[in-house]
## 1
Amino acid sequence: MTETVQHNNLYDFCYRYFKHVGATILPSVTSTINVELPRDVDKELTDRPFYWMWIDAMNEMPPNTVLHLVFEGSDVQPKDPENPKPEMITPGCYRMQRILQSAKTRGMFAAAYEQAQILSPFALFIAKISFISDLRQDFLESYAIDLRDFQIYGNVMDDLFQRDLRDERPTAAQVLPIAINMDQLFHIVNQCIELDVQARDHSWAKEARNRLNSELKRLDVYYDSVLATSNLDAEQIASYAAERELRKAEIIWRTEPKVEVRLTQMALIYLAQKPRDR
Amino acid sequence: MYTYQQHNDLRTTLATHGDMPMGKWSLFQLAYEAERQSLSQTFDELTCLSVLPAMVPYEHQVNTARRVIQELHGRALLADEVGLGKTIEAGLVLKEYVLRGLVKKTLILVPASLVLQWTRELNEKFAIPAFAQRNAWSWTTYDILVASMDTTKREPHRTEVLSQEYDMVIVDEAHKLKNSKTRNWQLINQMRKKYLLLLTATPVQNDMKELYNLINLLRPGQLGNQTVFAKNHVQKNRQPKNPEILRSMVQEIMVRNQRKQSSIEFTTRNVEAITIELSQKERALYTEVTEFIREAYQKRKESHRSILSLITLQREICSSSYASMCTLETMMKDKRITIEEQLRLQELYHMAESIPSYSKVERVIELVQQIQDKVIIFTEYRATQDFLLYMLQQSGIKAVLFRGGYKRGKKDWMKDLFEHRAQVLIATEAGGEGINLQFCNQVINFDLPWNPMRIEQRIGRVHRLGQTRPVYIRNFSTLGTIEEHIVSLLQDKIHMFESVIGELDVILGPKSFENDLMETFMTSEGKDEISARLSALSRRVRSLDIERTSP
């Protein structure tokens, strides 16, 4: 996680998360959230599968869980007796990870409409692109495909976040009816991403590849020289050979440059105007 | 140039949703933000620093983590001096890799006494969900596991561990891997692992080959094969050759921070030699034993037999005559000795037996009573340790033992007893490793190891990050014995206790100190010659030191 998660942003993020998943936010003082969780949310935020198995099997109706979350800047002490089990939320803490994961799962797909008379349909894709060797760099990219002419717009999220997109279709709106072939859309976006990746700076991959080659060469020189020693018995030779293969596999595993692409989200959006590239 | 992999799970998931994306735009926005937050944005920055819950690492620790990740590419020997926080550095590296999604399956191998401590620190300081290994199921149940090396190398665990693929393996107290013939070394060598960190303050204790063996685990061939290494870098007497070249090659795989370079303020160390006069009977025994050793030493040298038991005996007689009795007994059973020697040994044994009280032990009791605070007494010998415990208890002083052979639970229990119930902890060398006793600031060296690398391990138990009080070190020195020379050599000539071991150097230092000392004692005529030769020895050590610290 990076500096994009500032501490006060955590509060903001959690507040919006609870609001949008339909949890009941109870009265709370500054920089704290007291929240009552619906059962489906509870299951995603706490790790107690056996408990839920029991509850579901027995048809029990236990009272909803209430979380007392405390954020940085609050003067509530995490061991305040008035406040039974307040929980400090820090970046990367267990609860935060569960909340982020829950948000990712719940927000994987969407359909949204801009508020206008005439709307045209777009398929919006979010992709995570990772450059991996012994280190890793990720990029989050967005692509919108115009469903009428299959033109692709990149980097559209800043623009879209500024528009008034809503879940309900405006009653008076005319929406162009278009048959959608999902496989075709995924194919198009994947091709587009592959070209996009090819066009980037890959000095990182070149460097990793060179390093890999020189490491493999060093291994060869070393093991050749070891195996050339005359006084080895058959067992030793076999064990050196096994060791050599293992070290080789490890170096390739660690160093070989890889690009991994994963689409993380998709939405159908109906827009009044084409998206603008940033 | 790169392999390209495209994951299609979103397509599959969509199909299970009836091939129609449905859902709230507000949640879509949140999910997008959540994805953004879990990116590894650059190759260069350490991202873990902003998410550490309960800790601010020191600058040298952050720099070390950065260097391990960016320059050493995740396989490294972390060889900081004792007390600079190698655990923290390893934790930072692990956390960074976990956050970047490069490491999931991790095995951390530590001495049994440290399993719980490591597990706790990783959870509390780094919010890394680490578990302590408990049974044969643990290996597959948990992603991040802390286990004791001794358990892991035994069946059925060994087979289980060797069948796994580890993204990362961390080995604490890695000097236990110094010998490539041991099961420890072979276990690590056979494991399949991507990243590997070896942690030790003393990568070389006796022999240059130890360093070679450690580095070969990380990167085989970095120092050439064994023959080439021995030819290019080891002189007779185990002295390093071409130190500059060796150093630069080692630096490609090792990080070593020294106290004097780091920005941390340590509390002061006060070192004092406590001189003790032997009683008449003790002196008589000492003279006889030493005489015997000198004669035997010459004979064995001529016939190229091992002098190890002689060194041991010589050191034991300095520790306590009680300790020497065991060795005397074993030597008597040796079939190779002559009748004459046999009789001589028997005589010595009876002399030792008949000593009524020990001046050193009396002094220790006196001191402990004066200090009126927690004290750690270090000795090299179990026999001395047992005897001390008995004598302290006789004087109404509560004391506990600490040994290398103790199991994990017992070590924790002993540490706990010492912290809350007892005044004194009597530890042997092996027991001193890897426990943190910052709540105590008084150390008595009842006897000193002849290997200077191990002295710092002793003091490092108390004089480390987290110690808030000045540390007092008392070295026992019996007048007119070899011990007097040893204390003066280590304390006054090499300044072993004021500065730190690093200056004796890992790379340049592993002259076989023990043998050099023995040679000096055995072949010198009289006190003055010993003094002169030890001065020469210490000058050699110090000149190596200067050579090393100058760029």
## 2
Amino acid sequence: MADKPRIKLPKEAKKGEIIQIKTLVSHLMESGQRKDAQGKPIPRKIINKFACEFNGKPVFSCTLEPAISANPYIQFDARIDEEGTFKFAWTDDDGSVVTAEEKIALKA
Amino acid sequence: MGAINRRQAFLLGGGFVALTVLPMAANAEPSNDAAELIKKFTGGKEAAKGKITLDLPEIAENGNTVPLALTVESPMTAENYVKEVLFVADGNPNAGVATLMFTPMSGKAEASIRIRLAQTQNVIAVAKMSDGSLFTERKTVKVTIGGCGG
Amino acid sequence: MSIRYGSLAVLATAALTLSAMAVFGQEAERKGIPAPPGHVFKTIISGYQFRTKETRALQDDDLENPGFLAVERAADMWKTVDGSEGKSCMSCHGEAETTMKGVGAAMPKWSEKLNKPVNLEQQINICRTEHMKAQPWAFKSKELTDMTTFIRFQSRGMPVAVKTDGPMSPWFEKGKEIYYTRVGQLDLACASCHEKNNGKFMRADFLSQGQTNGFPTYRLRDQRLIPLHERFEGCMFDVRGVPYKPLSDEFLALELYVAWRGIGLPVETPSVRN
């Protein structure tokens, strides 16, 4: 999961505005249900958790199962009451975590 | 997905198509752990119908990538918000799909994900509100296998 | 169609077709572009128009479209030095956004040096081996498909504009012959599905005109980008034929001919298809 996650959210918002956040990461989401050419089961390897926080407070998170399509797309909303930084984290079955940050400013 | 290669999938294709269109397929008793997962999530309490809107295609163009959008009616204030939403699919090898956790900072109890459905089946959502009340909704998605789309 | 899969499957397909039509019926009006005189179609229609609204929505938004993961990967690779010459793509070509504009829309293209047409994948590997002195990328490798997608994407919205005259003419004729030749146990030609039966169901599949303007395409089925010759291979496999090899002269001729069948369609790479 070396690729940079793709994230889309507005650069600024009015106080109290609810914004939409779209995220997409590159991942095979190997379900554990498939077999290789030799008939051996391919072990499960998925992103099992995603979390988004804003200025250190949780906004939205989810746990994911093998029934999530490859290259997981997660879209959700956030209410903006102050300017600050979103932190995003995707956790892989192998324990690795890919993180990203996005800032948002308040519109006058 | 699935533990069969293309050739097997092709040879079996006709049979799969036949299975997936039988009307009973969608209403059959779930063969996986859907009921257990829901029970674990609700603590055995009954979930009421309503509040949840599931946007899913009636027929999936392909079962490997099915867009799913969720909306739960809620003011999403500190006093009254949607805490968690469990998604299960009652015809997959394992019923679990995802559990979404919202906060008042979510602003809206809305989310979109993309899911895998191995066959025609029900996608079931159960929402747990901050006051402990439970709501549920389900939708049948027809999944076809066979032909060039595989 | 006179295809038989066993009576049960036929009945099932009929039942499915009826229920599916309820959904697809609402979207029966498929927009296309007028074909030039002498073309096989009156209206040339992108595969986009044959897909459900959900699939089209995945293509319509550049953030939601998973094909852009490849575009971004290759944008980095474009600037990455590889091979003993110490060059990257950028060393010779500069900014892809300007220098590669229109390149992918005109492929395959005649190569004087090789005295045959080359497609985008082949041209990328010619650059790598001759100018960068780097290893060629294997067909179907993530790297080659990503770079092909990235370069085709620079032509997004531009019309497919392959040349079919002059030295390309015999290749065009060869491609046409392959297009109309029935192959495999199912005894189907490209034309059987994509010319005579587009807009109809074959079993669970809704047939398009088989246009190539969106390739490489993100297939929902495979959950990854599929290069054109892999799709050709897949079609031949599905009719239980023995596919030609990717990047073979046969598939190159077919690529040229099928591109002509979609002449003028806007490039949609990276498209999203079933």
## 3
Amino acid sequence: MKKRSILVLLISLLAISMFLAGCNTKTNTDADGKKNPGTSNGSKKDTLVYGRGGDSTSLDPITTTEGEAFKVTQNIFETLLVYGEQDTTIHPGLAEEWNTSDDGLTYTFKLRQGVKFHDGTDFNADAVVFNFDRWMNGNEDKFPYYTMFGGYKADEGHVIKEVKAVDPNTVQFILKRPQAPFLKNIAMSPFGIASPAAVEKWGDDFRSHPVGTGPFKFVEWKQKDRITIEKNPDYWQKGLPKLNKIIFRVIPENTARLNALANGEIDVMDGLNNSDEATVLANDKLQIIERPSMNVGYIGLTTNRPPLDNKLVRQAINHAIDKKSIIDAFYGGKALAAKNPMPPSIEGYNDAIQEYPFDLEKAKALLKEAGFEKGFEMDLWAMPVARPYMPEAKKVAEVIQDSLGKIGIKAKIQSVDWPTYLEKARKGEFDAFMLGWTGDNGDPDNFIYTLLDKDSIGSNNYAYYSNEELHKILIEAQTETEQSKRNELYKKAQEIIHEDAPWVPLVHSTPLLAAGKDVLNYLPHPTGSECLLNVEFK
Amino acid sequence: MPPLLINKRISLKKEVNIMLTYTVRRLLSLIPVLIGMTLVVFAIIHAIPGNPAQVILGQRATAEAIANLTRQLGLDRPWYIQYFEYIKSLLHGNLGTSLQTRGPINEEIWPYLAATAELTIVAMFIAIMVGVNAGIISAWFSKSWFDYVAMVLALIGVSMPIFWLGLMGQWAFSIELGWLPTTGREDVRDPVTAITNIYLLDTLLQGRFDQFGTVLKHLILPSFALATIPMAIIARMTRATMLEVMKSDYIRTARAKGLRMFWVVYKHSLKNAIIPVLTVIGLQTGLLLGGAILTETIFGWPGIGRYLYDAIGYRDYPVIQSGILVIAAIFVLINLVVDLLYVFVDPRIKYTK
């Protein structure tokens, strides 16, 4: 009896191991075929797997401000105008042509004909009107990015008076007052035109059933795991997209993501650590792809908290920080030392401004002049998360702590989890703090007004910096439609900010991606999300 | 029917009755435990700073919008009202709505639970198979080289950071040897069609043996990483109790009778030594099911641990509350099952009314 049961056990063990061995050989051949997996019919690889650190929170791009969402929706939805492949110049999108009235109050868009949404309904002027009506009747909770147009329908600041369909292929926007970055706003990913039929069908669930006109159609979303989109066969640009399928996979840990890339499980990864660049370069199957920089990482000096309320103290701190060594140590040399609150790629950048040189003697002299010869103590808050503009905040903070120590300022490094960090910063509870910003639309207003105008105190002006003269200039610049005059205004604004020194602008970094060598035409966009229309495999 | 058999049947019936009463009583006692749990979790997460409205609206939000959303989410109401609303909906079987995805948690939570369950079951299978046997053999040949090596390995297993072990595993078995995939649950280029969300089962149900193999391969690295700690604990526990039992008189008698050593060890000793080990197994399974955040993060495993972790980062109160509640319930249930198992393993254990 007992012998028999042992025999049964042995036989079943044998069976299981044979079965496993069988699986093994089968998957081994899969592994051999790894050189070209994801083929739909034999030869050419046409499924791209994109590895990233976080999942999207919504696939209805207007309902979120969170960048991971746009990486996907940029491929499903299209906007009336689009940015250049790697810059924020304006090009035709769903609108073939557009013109602006002389007073800057009427914008007329001629729409592309014969474009259909993925659900088969027609894209036309009514669809555009439907979308804008939907957004302007919402609020900041529902459609947060719509505030780019100054607010919602009932708000006084709302710049759009009316959106109307002149004929099926012409849409007109009538503004209450000119808005200089209007066209740049229209091209932002959140303003992708959605199928009205699908929005009505799904209601709030549209955020997980997106339907647009873009080169890829939504297939499946397994939360925290992957999002799959596939080629839209009826796409209006013939012969595009080149890929058949894109799978956005979530692999939270940066090193694990790089391992997955090296093993061929994913084809592209974002958020590569600068310190891993050498590993990628040493692997002949991989390549580095650089994202053009449109960000700023900075140390905010909360201007209403003594002794940082003293301009001389803030200038002294600016003199005490050695940006170059920070860039070499933590950005792999791939960042530009910042002297203004916006990056040079943005029109209106003031290159004439002289950076506060790294000069400890000068810094000490300024502190003495301010009456702090013996220095003082303050908190220096370091971000708990990695961002493209600040990959290793705590280590950078240590370097800064060291530098400040040399001029007698004792900085105590503090940190707290990210949601709390933002809330405390918003409430102005920090002395000095590290933060940054990635541009939304390549307009100077999106940096300077958003981050440093007195109107933005309580939202993004965490330094609580307020300057009446600057405010006047920025408001004027918002409605000034003549580009050269506008640039002059922003140049002046940067001078004022430089003098007042509410920040230590640290860096404009170059975010890195890594990809398999066989990935072609991957052009990262400075805004952080790109359409993978032309991407293909070798 | 002979009277002896009838008696036996009656006493069996009585025993089953006692067990049933015991189970029901234990289940009822779960209710105050779970209510207490909700209160504790509620208190803790509301005590930490960080406003969900701020997180939802993101870095770009205006103060006014944050205030509006706070009101809309009901977060400006007194905490006891928020708590009673939550309990009320719980009693209706409603776990709430996620602030982040705005979907019902009842539906959302299942795939994560299933993913974690699959990983846990495989990890515990490995941990028990290796751990119990290593413990037994160590005790059998105590003070032999095997014993020393196994116990040193167990010590390393307990103290090894999973984070490091996971990344090293990926490097060695994926990148250098190319045997195993680094992350995820499946080949995303040939995804599994989910039925139960336990992929080993789903692939078998669909007769996709090739996919079953792939899923199994994806399980190996994370489940071994996850298994190290319980494996080590189980091995040490088994060894300790086995040593104890093997010194007892009846074992000496069994050996004196000339029984084969294998049977003495695996039948007579193990049966008596297994009770404490079973307890440890129960506790460890509960712990693993609670979500192995580190393992799930490194291996990109979409399990309950990451679901909760992301929810915490997002201050998604309903998900945190309900997620912890579900995990706590599972934990308590597993321990109930272990308690009931004792009776089957050791007939001397009886639960009285």
## 4
Amino acid sequence: MIGKGLLKGLGITLKHGVEKPKTIQYPEQRPYLQERFRGCLEFDYKNCIVCGMCTKACPNNVLSFETAPIEGSKKKRLVSYTIDLQYCMFCNLCVEACPTNTLFFVHDFELSTYRRDEIKKVYIPPALTQVDAGGGQAELIPQDALEPDREAEAEAKRLKQLQAMKTALSKGGQKVLAKYVDTEEDAAVLANLLQADEKKRDKMAALIVDDKEKARKVAQAFVAKERKTQAGGEEK
Amino acid sequence: MEHLFTNIAQILTSWMVSLGLPPIWADLILLIGQWTIIVVIVTLNVIVLVWLERKISGFIQERLGPNRLGPFGAFQTIADAMKLLTKEDIIPSQADRWIFMTAPMLFIVIAVMLYAVLPLGQGMEVVDLNVGLFYFISLGSLSTICLLMAGWGSNNKWSLLGAMRSVAQMISYEIPLAFSLLGVVMLAGSLNLSEIVTAQNRYWFILLQPVAFLTYFIAATAELNRGPFDMPEAEQELTAGAYTEYTGMRWALFFLAEYTNLVAVSALAATLFFGGGQGPWLPSWLWIIIKTYLIMLVFMWMKWTFPRIRMDHLMSFSWKVLIPVSLANILITGLGIEFFRGMGW
Amino acid sequence: MSLMIINDLVFVLIASITLLSALGMVLSRNIVHSALALILTFIGVAALFFNLGAAFLGLVQILVYAGAISVLIIFAIMLVMHGEAHKTNRFNPSLGTHLWGGYIAAVMTIGLVAAIWFSELPEVKGRTVEDAVGLLAGLLLGNYVIAFEAAAVLLLLAVVGAIILARGVEEQ
């Protein structure tokens, strides 16, 4: 019969038309990934023995690393390891070549970046920076690799100071506060006020640690306000 | 509800006459008003249709279609229209400038003019022309020239090839289109569309003229240049046929006109074969909208089901199958009318 | 402003568009432009039919003449397009041809004007034909059916002849 095939085709599209869509609404719904899915190539410096098999296996020169000799040993140690993912075709050859499972694929597949050099991943073993900080081989250390540690140290120092200041203020601390107000009397008033009000105390402590100039202004304002309320209370 | 719009029209006319306007001017103003409303509704409707088409193609391909902008992606087409409006209007330096520029305008004008005679409900046609059906066919034949102008004016080989194809296709399929409508005209005894609707009081003509409906449907798909008969555009081989060189709003006008034609052809099918505005409970203008949309859904369903057919197959199908079939249908209809008249029905 | 004046204005508008596009068709050097101007002329004539109340004839004019021009354009493109478009509809340079053409045109114009001038046109007033299509169909398929069918057969022969000329006949 003429047209039978056409009707059959219409039937098939109708059937598929009422079926549930097979697509995944990507940013909200995440796709199910198989265990061996090759997403981003990752590097774990702990296992690396600096054998160089991975760079030999790579067909696209994605992988590269820098080494330095260990004094008094034939071995080398890793200074930095670079994966330039923009050339990677996820062929798995480096992973197969690696004898210690240092290289592996993870499931993260959202690799796009805003700048071309952002896709290049540089791994610097933290052991190296510590050794170098003591050993004095400063030329091997990339400067920016050290900076996060310094920042962390400064942050820790600041926290310590803040904590000390808070405890000092809660126990009175007229001597500390005297630097920020004009008279001893004012310092006493401020100390009493801060002992009573925890919020103001914390604020004052933070200001003293971070910004001495601002702390002076705020302290004077606090005193003036306190004086005023006290005077108002007496009048009533 | 049934006489909602006709009553509004009457109230407006009498109001204008009471203001001291001569009746002929009141009629003219009302005509222009009706016409403007139809044009606006038809063009806004295209936004819905494009959304519907993309949704249907999505569902058939087990996707969701547009779903980001607004509820169920309903605002996607509006965003697309905005984009098209703001795009650069490129006219190729070697193009035949005037022809290139006027072709899309003429195309949309012809597409909108088709609505002048369509009864969009009982007593709701802009012009109650007594040769309405013939008007529809002869105006439809002019849209071929617009495509040809677009293809020629672009001065591009793909455009010209697409235009040549569309001329060959549309002229060939105009014949079965007109012949298939002749059976209906013979049964109704009139070319007036509202009289044809009235003639379907007892039976819808789809029951009496199923073959005519099939030939009309196939020929109309070809006339609309819709899939599976979309060789004139054929993105994969001709980039976009006659529309290749068009950008921005000019291209959007072609798009608009194609969907406007789709609505017109579907509404004509509803009028001629499915009793127009006839139906229980609901007012007639709502019925014709429902019927038109159902027919358009079938058009879309077909487009996303069938693969594009070959040009020579297309031509031989028209000349060797559709025209003989529609001629035979006219003969049988005539014999049947004479037979039943002889029986005294 | 009465209806008659509006009617006259519409007539003048349509007639001038028709005449201008006819002139454009003759004078254009691009054959495709000529063909498009011819379409406009035919549509203008159809509009004149509408203006006279003969909607059916106007639509026939559009369907048969204007609709078929596209085929003419296709032929023009296929047969004469070998070079630049603006040289496709060249004027014949010889003076004798110009003179002959002018002579024939003048004779025909004078003949037409004389025919209209000297014939007594009966004035038709207030009589509209209700079922013009039915009357026309009755005349074509009733009184003049033999002439009608003869014309149909002639056209069919022309089509078959054109196909044979275009594709050739395989020799047995």
